[in-house]
Amino acid sequence: MKLDGKDTKVFELMRRELDREEYSLILIASENYVDEDVLATQGCVLTNKYAEGYPSKRYYSGCAYLDEIESIAIERARTLFGVEHANVQPHSGSSANMAVFYAVLERGDTVLGMDIAHGGHLTHGARPSFSGKWYRAVSYPVSAKNEMLDYDEIRGIARKERPKLIIAGASAYSKIIDFAKFREIADEVGAYLMADIAHIAGLVAAGLHPSPAGHAHFITTTTHKTLRGPRGGLVMCNADLAKKIDSAVFPGIQGGPLMHVIAAKAVALRQAMTEEFKEYQRQIIANAKHMAKRMADLGFRIVSGGTDNHLFLVDLTPKNVTGNDAQIALEASGIMVNKNLIPFDTKTPGVTSGIRIGTPAVTTRGMKEKEMEVICEMIDSVLKRPGDTSFMDGTRERVREMCKGFPFYSRIYDI
Ligand code: PLP
Q1: Cα→Cα distances 184→5, 8, 90, 369, Å
Q2: C-alpha to C-alpha distances, 4 to 12, 58, 200, 220, 375, nearest whole angstrom
Q3: What domains lie within the chain, and their CATH numbers?
């Protein structure tokens, strides 16, 4: 594959982005690198085709091959996650979540999700999102004692608020989520349970995080985070809710499916069934645990004391630097993290006291504990002098050299 073409402006920007991805340390917990098979599938002629409807029930002619592709994607999702029904059409994780709301709620119904300021996602009831605007959204926090989920407290809130839908899942939570406990609470108050495993889908697929299958009425996920597929979403449920969810996705909230993305989901789901993928997920966790411990040794405070998954939150308060300043200084040094509120943060979401660090992307490149040590040391030294541009320039050169030792897209692109 070569990156050139007539639209020199856009292609030049694509080339620069490719360079950025290849020669930076991507520690953004929700990002990853897809391989050449997923990339090629996503960039193929299936993008040309309309296929409104579902396999064998389309509104357009010429869908025979697409029917087979979508059926393969569905079958692989069902097998991988051990569920009765899968809908592979949601364009994103947010669309997958919206489909569940659309399937079982009326406007104004009560939903209970994790507070966005404590690790929940926008679509779990945050005010600016449809989930907080059109529904009566209430939230549960993490415990002030240990920054972990407190199921007794969640039960108490559920009893008081009587939600019709409870959402278990997070964007910034580093501990195991007990989906069985969530189901007990949902049953007690007569609510549906939706498990949003967008972040941990790869770990769940590999058996390294307890699965919500058999507990949640609906399981939603993105396909592009730890699952390492194309940017997209997925909803799963038991057979009795299949019709509801399918008509919520189409024609409820979406039109024509992105068949090139669905084909790429199928490719990624097959990859996720391999032993190599399991080993990859094990290394993601090992790397995250190693980094969290090393950062703590360097004097950073790790929210909830550590991690059981692919990410952790770092409280920068002991270092006297804000999340925003840290993000800027680290980006200038070739290290990509995102500022993040920590539980009970006193700073605004634009400033924050913390950063979120995740290991899926660096692990895809083959980096292990030894490299995690070097990365922690670089983060620490940059954050000791966040305004020192020549130090940041020097670190960026070190990062570039380090990345050259773990080539990824330079194996397939001419960069
Ligand atoms: N759910 C969770 C827990 C997420 O973290 C995210 C994205 O970060 C989403 C849903 C939404 O995914 P998307 O960005 O594809 O809409």
Answers
A1: 56, 57, 28, 38
A2: 8, 36, 36, 37, 33
A3: 40-271 (3.40.640.10), 275-411 (3.90.1150.10)
Indicate whether residue 70 lines ligand 1 (CB < 6 A).
no
Question: What separation in Å is there between the alpha carbon of 94 and the centre of ligand 1?
Answer: 6
List, for residues 194-245, the tens digit of each pLDDT value. 999 999 999 999 999 999 999 999 999 999 999 999 999 999 999 999 999 9
Nearest CA to ligand 1 atom 10: 93
Counting Cβ atoms within 10 Å, is residue 42 exposed (0-12), middle (13-18) or buried (19+)? buried
Residue 347: active-site member: no
| β-strand pairing of 25-26 with 57-58 | unpaired
Q: What is the pTM of this model?
A: 0.97
d(CA 300, CA 317): 8
Closest atom of ligand 1 relative to the 94 alpha carbon = 16
Angle at 50 between CA 48 and CA 52, to 5 degrees: 155
Give the 3-state secondary structure of residue 348.
Answer: coil
Q: Which of 41, 123, 221, 222 is catalytic?
A: 222
d(CA 167, CA 245): 16
Known catalytic residue: 196? yes
**286-322 residue pLDDT tens:** 999 999 999 999 999 999 999 999 999 999 999 999 9
Catalytic-labelled residue, pool 15, 19, 35, 50: 50
Active site residue 220: no
Per the annotation, the verdict on 60 as an active-site residue is no
b/e per residue 342-355 (b: at least 16 CB within 10 A): bbebebeeeebbbb
